[in-house]
Amino acid sequence: METTTQINPLADIPKDAKPIEKVMVIISKGTLESIYAGFILANGARMEGIESEIFFTFFGLEAVNKKTIDNIHVATVGNPAMHMPTMLGGLPGMEALATKMMKSKMEKLDIPPIGEFLEILSASGCRLWACKLAMEMFDLKKDDLIPEVEGVLTVGDFYARAAGEGTQIIFI
Predict the structure, then answer these.
(1) What is the model's pTM?
(2) Does any domain span residue 2?
(3) Count of the separate structural domains present in the chain
(4) Lowest CB count within 10 Å: 29, 116, 133, 162, which one?
């Protein structure tokens, strides 16, 4: 029988390390796995009492667009983590099957759907922002977005909000 040694993942943190006070998550991809990665990081920050904000840019806007929020899929083509040839991932129905399987697994783990997760994030104090340039590129207006999105920011506005010691920016 193999024995395992318990490792304390916090043991090597320097005693004088400054705590993270704010997490700024940039979601740039419109795939289920990318969107949820950002949500989980932002939610985890809020659960630890850390401020969090999410900036949706480029295809990440799909997560907050009223027309697309319920049609987010898993990326099966060009996704090495799928462990399948690109050609197989591109076959009709593969994306829908992978998405159905992932959503089913997430439901069993009690992970809420995107819209509900955004409501939870917003209610917890996580601030949600859309990228001005991406909005213009895709001809979107603020009214096209879910109400939890507080506003549309330029990249400069986003960096200004991130200013300060103890802020971490996470790009997904």
Answers:
(1) 0.87
(2) no
(3) 2
(4) 116
Do 61 and 134 belong to one domain?
yes
Q: For residue 54, is it within any domain?
A: yes
Q: Which two tokens stand for residue 123?
A: 């209610």
Residue-by-residue DSSP string for 3-64:
------TTTTS-TTPPPP-EEEEEE---BHHHHHHHHHHHHHHHHTT-EEEEEE-GGGGGGT
Q: Residue-wise pLDDT tens for the chain (172 aa)?
A: 566 778 888 888 888 888 899 999 999 999 999 999 999 999 999 999 999 999 999 999 999 999 999 999 887 666 666 666 665 656 577 777 777 888 888 899 999 999 999 999 999 999 999 999 999 999 999 999 999 999 999 999 999 999 988 899 999 9
